[in-house]
Design goal:
- The structure is a single chain.
- With about 280 residues, the protein is of the alpha/beta class.
- It is about 40% helix and about 25% strand.
- It contains 11 helices and 10 strands.
- Strands 1, 2, 3, 4, 5, 6, 7, 8, 9 and 10 form a 10-stranded mixed beta sheet that branches.
- Helix 3 packs across helix 10.
- The two termini are about 30 Å apart.
- The N terminus is likely disordered.
């Protein structure tokens, strides 16, 4: 399943033409970018699953083209995939048309009214929070708590900042930091090529999640900035006779695990070295 997660050759980031987001992503070696993400998902799997068991239903919020659906199928019997972008949702439906245990739902806004209370075991909320208004985020978290079963899980992956929140947007003159009211306006009336990005103060985000009744199981900083990442240890073959393309993906993930363990041993240092944070939460 890790092969499926890491194979992004057919996936285009939804905002590839947006200069701020694409510049961050393209500054990385794709292999390392994908392996760090796979490390996070492997740790999720090891945390939420008991041996030889699966969850019943997972929810993929903001599924896009369905890139993370294979991971969710590896931990649960059924997946509900939702998105506000009907074009992308249709593409995902075409890709998974022969998979009977995936159900697609088109939604607008943050309400999840079609879903009854306590109906899902796991929610994946990957890199959506930083692009919605603050009001929508609050409403979404309330909806997540409503539809999660007791002791259900929420995986929240997002950007972060050090000490204070930033609201960033690409403009014709480069990247600009904007105030909250400007950010709220842009998230309500977004324009192609000008996707606003909210970089969360992690302490604030954790407090917000606790206020909604979630318990923080663990936190991982990942997508380590290239200038800090030990690239040679990951990307060079162990010997000149080894073909890097034939290396076991599981072993690559183990190397990432060891690297990120050492970086995350010092939380403040990790914040400075990473673009993203993953929070695994449990419904209290």
């Amino acid at each position: 399943m890790l092969n499926t997660i890491m194979n992004s050759s057919n996936y285009t980031y939804p905002d590839r033409n947006e200069r701020l987001t694409s510049r961050l992503i393209q500054s990385y070696k794709e292999t390392r970018w994908n392996l760090e993400e796979a490390y996070v998902f492997k740790k999720v799997k090891n945390t939420v699953l008991k041996e030889n068991e699966k969850l019943t239903v997972s929810l993929d919020v903001g599924t896009g083209l369905g890139r993370l659906i294979p991971f969710l199928l590896s931990i649960s019997t059924k997946v509900i995939a939702i998105d506000a972008d009907l074009w992308r949702l249709r593409r995902a439906m075409e890709f998974f048309e022969n998979e009977p245990n995936i159900f697609f739902l088109w939604t607008k806004g943050s309400r999840l009214d079609p879903l009854p209370p306590e109906c899902v075991d796991f929610i994946n909320y990957s890199h959506v929070a930083q692009h919605v208004s603050h009001y929508e985020l609050l409403e979404t978290l309330g909806e997540f708590y409503r539809i999660l079963r007791d002791d259900g899980w929420l995986l929240l992956l997002t950007t972060h900042s050090e000490g204070k929140e930033w609201f960033l947007v690409s403009t014709e003159n480069g990247i600009k930091e904007i105030k909250r009211n400007e950010y709220e306006k842009l998230t309500r009336n977004s324009q192609p090529g000008k996707l606003p990005v909210r970089k969360f103060d992690v302490d604030y985000l954790e407090a917000l999640l606790r206020d909604f009744g979630f318990k923080i199981e663990w936190k991982i900083y990942y997508h380590i900035k290239p200038e800090f990442a030990p690239r040679d240890e990951i990307e060079k073959p162990k010997s000149f006779n080894e073909n890097p393309s034939k290396r076991d993906p599981e072993q690559w993930v183990e190397e990432i695990i060891e690297t990120l363990k050492s970086i995350n041993s010092n939380e403040m240092d990790a914040r400075r070295k990473a673009l993203d944070v993953a929070l695994l939460l449990r419904k209290g």
